[in-house]
Amino acid sequence: MTQPDNLLTADFYGYEALLSEEERKLLLKARDFMRTEVKPLVNEYWARGEFPRELIGKFRELGLAGVAYEGYGDPLPAASHLLTGMLAMEYTRTDPSVATFYGVHNGLAMYSVYSGGDQEQRDRWLPAMAAMDKIGAFAMTEPLGGSDVAGGMRTTAERGADGTWVLNGAKKWIGNATFADLVVVWARDVADNHVKGFVVERGTPGFEPVKIENKVAFRIVENAEITLTDVRVPEANRLQNINSFRDVAGILRATRGGVAWQALGVMIGAYEAALAYAKERKQFGRPIAKFQLVQDLLVRSLGNITACWGMLVQLARLQDNGIFRDEHSSLAKAFVTSRMREVVAWSREIFGGNGIVLDHDVARFFVDAEAIYSFEGTREMNTLIVGKSITGESAFV
Asked: Where's the Acyl-CoA oxidase/dehydrogenase middle domain (predicted)?
């Protein structure tokens, strides 16, 4: 295997070389976009707690939103999971918030339509979503329901005599919801008590998203609390291939693996910032990169990055080979996000007092890591999924 030029400093074992030449061109395209279009904006908008809406048009020009979906992506018919994972890493390496905006749209929302919709629904919504002419959101978590939402979903859907569905309830922490054109809302059908999915279009009466303020992490992401009051949705907007939470679990399985790739991106971003700082910051007349304890922190960080990257490469292979299970994504999410916490702490430590200043980037990675650690299943929930798999015994209450 020939190592390509310009591998990331953090790619110590050359994992990027596993991509095909065509795939790597797309990765480098995304890398250049994040460097030139996104990085100059993120600290300003993070401080303001706002999403830079001008980036939507620039992401549209980037043209990578549909690469994972056969028949809806260009230039690849359908990207490998290795490429889509490395793209998620690349976006997050620059900024976790912007990466989450993209991941919610390109992952959670689009994949819900792609896997949960019938052919008519895929053809109706996915071309516009792939072109980013319509932005998507994914509404599952509720004010009183997080880890227990599968069995305790309070948002309800009731079908009337005319076939129209009426949704009532509330959702919380819904990224992109303040400006999304299409929101995939999950609700419990009162007739059979099973969870079903509905595409609610912007402007539908009774659908009220309100931005959550005063966050100390993911400040660029416009999370919303949504109130649904007699929201009427036609049967044509009910995802036809979703008939229970078991069907929803397949979506979460795939997106949970994507979050692990995001965690890798956070590690790399923090490590790169710390490494660059260590080379330029001088104490006692020499760069702190010459200090043994600083090198120890950097090497431990690189070890975590390299180990997690290897795990995620194999996870992508399992997905591509169709032998990917819940416990595979759960182990990756639990393990990689735990290692991420270590790396962002070690990286911030290298900066000393400067590590709490936004100008140096590492503070943003440090606090944003906490959001990634929590969503798409906590460490505890994912641990119990893996624990049930390896022991054959369920420890869920």
From this structure: 137-231
Count of CB atoms within 10 A of residue 301's CB?
26
Q: What is the pLDDT of residues 289-333, one digit of tens each?
A: 999 999 999 999 999 999 999 999 999 999 988 888 889 989 999
Rounded Cα gap, residues 183 and 200, in angstroms? 5
* Domain 245-391 top-level CATH class: mainly alpha
> Which helix (DSSP H) or strand (DSSP E) does residue 278 occupy?
helix 245-280
Beta-bridge mates of residue 187: 196
C-beta atoms surrounding 191 within 10 Å = 9
Going by pLDDT thresholds of 50, 70 and 90, the confidence category of residue 76 is low
Residues 332 and 300: beta-carbon distance below 8 Å: no
Given a contact cutoff of 8 angstroms between Cβ atoms, the answer to whether 384 and 334 are in contact is no
| Angle, alpha carbons 256-261-267 (nearest 5°) | 130
**Residue 254 near residue 109 (C-beta atoms within 8 A):** no
Structure token pair of residue 263: 């965690």
Structure tokens belonging to residue 324: 């990917």
For 15-130, CATH gives 1.10.540.10
pLDDT, one tens digit per residue, over 350-362 is 999 999 998 899 9
Residue type, 322: G
Predicted model pTM: 0.90
* DSSP label at residue 214: -
Beta carbons within 10 angstroms of residue 234's beta carbon: 12
CB-CB neighbours of 71 under 10 Å: 14
Q: How far is CA 250 from CA 7, 79, 196, 247, 326, in A?
A: 33, 19, 13, 6, 8
Among 2.60.120.10, 2.60.40.3250, 2.40.110.10, 2.60.40.1470, what is the CATH number of 136-237?
2.40.110.10
